[in-house]
Amino acid sequence: KAGVTQTPRYLIKTRGQQVTLSCSPISGHRSVSWYQQTPGQGLQFLFEYFSETQRNKGNFPGRFSGRQFSNSRSEMNVSTLELGDSALYLCASSLQGRAEAFFGQGTRLTVV
Amino acid sequence: QQPVQSPQAVILREGEDAVINCSSSKALYSVHWYRQKHGEAPVFLMILLKGGEQKGHDKISASFNEKKQQSSLYLTASQLSYSGTYFCGTEMLPNAGGTSYGKLTFGQGTILTVHP
Known about the structure:
The complex is a heterodimer.
Chain A: E1 5-7, E2 10-13, E3 19-24, E4 31-38, E5 42-50, E6 53-57, E7 64-68, E8 74-78, E9 87-94, E10 102-103, E11 107-111
Parallel strand pairs in A: 2-11
Antiparallel strand pairs in A: 1-3, 3-8, 4-5, 4-9, 5-6, 7-8, 9-10, 9-11
Chain B: E1 4-6, E2 9-13, E3 18-23, E4 28-36, E5 43-49, E6 54-57, E7 60-65, E8 70-75, E9 84-92, E10 105-106, E11 110-115
Parallel strand pairs in B: 2-11
Antiparallel strand pairs in B: 1-3, 3-8, 4-5, 4-9, 6-7, 7-8, 9-10, 9-11
């Protein structure tokens, strides 16, 4: 069974630009959660999607948004990038959001 | 509220045991444990649900004390491959009118180093 796939693995963007990250969950999993990981703040929850609906949202500015498609694949978008957005962005999939959650390899975003 | 993990770091020799604790000030529905090696994604170890259960596989086990809202991860007869940062992720009981679905709040991590 294929794991969680995130693309791209690495990304370098300039301040002010926007970026879209993609996450394909494990087959059959309908819940996708996104996290930001930085050395200073650790792992922080961004949002969760289930059946194309956002069910939960963390404390991040509106520049961070996401969506989920009918095949459960999810995308995360960050607009007007800031230097502080440099981080490892991880997505995790689970059957329904209240079970084992498996992480993808992450997308390393560097904002210069 | 972020759960508190202790200790922050542990250094072991192969074969020694370790316990990592995770405490929450909020009522929990579940506790998830992960191990992350440098430059890699967190790897799921186990989930403990409300009800005070204990789980384990191989030489890694965990318990969840519902009364104390505390979980402990037990690593016995440690191996070099156990080295990494261990995170607990907690899922709180839903608040009235809110939901905790898919939201894990992670502790700051415990760095475990196993030497030969």
